Amino acid sequence: xxxxSLANILNDxxxxxxxxxxxxxxxxxxxxFFSMFGxxxxxxxARRTPFVEVKRILSGHTVKLESDQRLTYAGIRTPHQGxxxxxxxRRRNADxxxxxxxxLRFDESDRDGKNRIQAYVYTDAGFVNEALVRxxxxxxxxxxxxxxxxxxxxx
Length: 155
Prior knowledge:
By secondary structure, this protein is of the alpha+beta class. It folds into two domains: 1-45; 51-154, CATH 2.40.50.90. The chain is built from four helices and eight strands, in the order H-E-E-E-E-H-E-E-E-H-E-H. The protein is elongated, with a radius of gyration of 26 Å.
């Protein structure tokens, strides 16, 4: 009887050990899968985030690129000409991006209703769209096509 109980305990311990090793193996495979998937996603994101040079500032949220295309910042709106803070927003945008190479990130669409490039803009100093909102020179303007960074912009 004692030998039978000892055998059951040893068998149970072996089963528990096998189960534990199996669980660790599954976890390791899941982590490996997601880390490989994450690298692939980062690679795809890098291909979708071109670098462009800003030639001239048109407003607080619109610039002209070296390619002569217009770019408007996704998810925000700054004052238009004739509205309060237009010049301040335009000047701050110039400080942030004029003559610099910027990185673009796109949302659902890379064009707005006026066929301008529509993107989130980054410099070495950070996220330009967010900086303009944080500094009170822009407000968040979300559309179904521009919701990628809604939480960050609204914060």
